[in-house]
Write a structure and sequence with these properties.
Helices cover about 10% and strands about 45% of the residues. By secondary structure, it is mainly β. It has a domain of about 45 residues: SH3 type barrels. It has a four-stranded antiparallel β-sheet with strand order 1-2-3-4, with no helix packed on it. A hairpin with a 2-residue loop joins strand 3 and strand 4. It is elongated. Pfam families: LSM. Belongs to the snRNP Sm proteins family. SmF/LSm6 subfamily. Its main location: cytoplasm.
Length: about 80
Amino acid sequence: MSTTGEKGSATTKTPADFLKSIRGRPVVVKLNSGVDYRGILACLDGYMNIAMEQTEEYVNGQLKNKYGDAFIRGNN
């Protein structure tokens, strides 16, 4: 089994590894209410609480607000 990351090769990557790899990158967080938050993933904890930077709030696909930093509770 190869872990070089080549396409078509089998790699072992856990969800935690994936979440660590996207820290500092643009993400879209979709809440159960239908609201989307788009921004840079700053950090994430074991309860799935999310801290984001340069965050934009979208309701029904339309930009509603811009926030410097945002914190989203994991139970949303």
